[in-house]
Amino acid sequence: MFGREKIEYKTPDQVRAMRRAGLVVADIHAALRDAVAPGMTTADLDAVSADVIARAGAKPNFLGYHGFPATACISVNEEIVHGIPGDRVIRDGDVVSFDCGAVVDGWHGDAAFSLVVGEGTAEDQALVETTEEAMWAGIAALATGSRLGGVGDAVEDVVTRANAARGVELGIVEEYVGHGIGTAMHQPPDVPNYRTRDKGPRLRPGMCLCVEPMITAGSPENKTLADDWTVVTLDGSRAAHFEHTVALLDGGIWVLTAPDGGAGPLGELGVRVAPLG
């Protein structure tokens, strides 16, 4: 899983440039959280994303990427990732995942979140909460560990504890992983969301990484639909997806796509964010 491809290390000034892209993505997320409601289509929601990007003077990094036809990936219920916005209508109780990105001055930001629309089940809410918890645990591992493989260890530990506590069998999708990011949306190294034998490269200042676990309420086995994009669970179980872009700095980490740099959630885990300057 871990290759040894060349990693693009960023200077502090380049990290600050990436922060500008990250804040556009944060604004997209905020607008989507405010907008999503039963009766909307996923195309309606993609229009919200496009509007935020345009008003910021940024560029979409998803639109046209290998032919992808929209500014955001919007995946509903059994769709794990890469859902193409269209005429699917959002209904009360749906689990909806938004994967969004933007480019500012050639630097990329990328982040995802999931939510339960309206009145959902306790099981769906637990799925979403566990996936978000797993993401933050993976991000915290970047601040406290020495090797990239610690991210997958932390994510899997959260899911294992949730399964034991709730008597459920949440699954971790292994085919789609996190990644490096910078002058391109996807760069080395891969960032697995599960425990691996290879502990990966050493963590070093200047790395910018996306941590993005995808968790299913049933089996993680999946397939890609005929549109060549949308990935769905084979058993029809629901899925959730969270992601942030994270910079490793001399003094620690900074979550570039979180409004507060990740200070709130990471503080609860005993991790302090580094000064970005």
From TrEMBL:
Origin: domain of life: Bacteria
EC number per UniProt: 3.4.11.18
Cofactor binding annotation: Binds 2 divalent metal cations per subunit. Has a high-affinity and a low affinity metal-binding site. The true nature of the physiological cofactor is under debate. The enzyme is active with cobalt, zinc, manganese or divalent iron ions. Most likely, methionine aminopeptidases function as mononuclear Fe(2+)-metalloproteases under physiological conditions, and the catalytically relevant metal-binding site has been assigned to the histidine-containing high-affinity site.
InterPro entries documented for this protein: Creatinase/aminopeptidase-like, Pept_M24, Pept_M24_MAP, Pept_M24A_MAP1
Binding site for a divalent metal cation 2: D110, H179, E212, E243
Hydrolase as UniProt keyword: yes
Keyword match rRNA-binding: no
PROSITE patterns reported in the protein's UniProt record: MAP_1
Binding site for substrate: H82, H186
GO biological process, one term: proteolysis
Catalyzed reactions: Release of N-terminal amino acids, preferentially methionine, from peptides and arylamides
Function of the molecule: Removes the N-terminal methionine from nascent proteins. The N-terminal methionine is often cleaved when the second residue in the primary sequence is small and uncharged (Met-Ala-, Cys, Gly, Pro, Ser, Thr, or Val). Requires deformylation of the N(alpha)-formylated initiator methionine before it can be hydrolyzed.
Protein's recorded name: Methionine aminopeptidase
Gene: map
